[in-house]
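User: Could you check the structure of this?
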Amino acid sequence: MSDDLDIDLDDLARRMDGALASLRTEFASLRTGRASGSMLEPVMVDAYGTLTPINQVGTVNVPEPRMVTINVWDKGLVGKVEKAIRDSGLGINPQLNGTIIMLPIPELNEERRRDLTKVAAQYAESARVSIRNVRRDGMDQIKKAKTAGMSEDDQKMYADEVQELTDKAIGNVDKALEAKQAEIMQV
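Assistant: Sure, the predicted structure tokens are below.
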């Protein structure tokens, strides 16, 4: 078989795993009522004229289940970090204590929990779409290989393997979604 007839299944699997990793990152930013340092990952601070992640201007800690603290290294950035948190849409009210910013995590009410499960479902659907796009790319490669002379048996084998990768990846997305929704709804 020549190289242009081979389908790179490892690349397809890697791209599908990338969609799942991206989903897990998005899930980590969803607030579940428990404190987590990862919920601050999307928050950017205007530090020294550049947008900088919070974890690069201070130390993020979780001393209690319902408290996140940020020990800002540069005293001049405390106000900017506080403003970035207020403007982030996380719904958390920062409290200042010198260079330490405390973020008490409030309890989630039932309505907010339902809203968060819907957001999680949207993130999961987006990941499924990404995985299906990777599957479509794989199937397109198989069609191109067919015109280049790939046998029907090889086409069928590759198509089955691509579908198997897709089913496995979507199953992993569904499991991650179930776990996240259970975590959100847990009181």
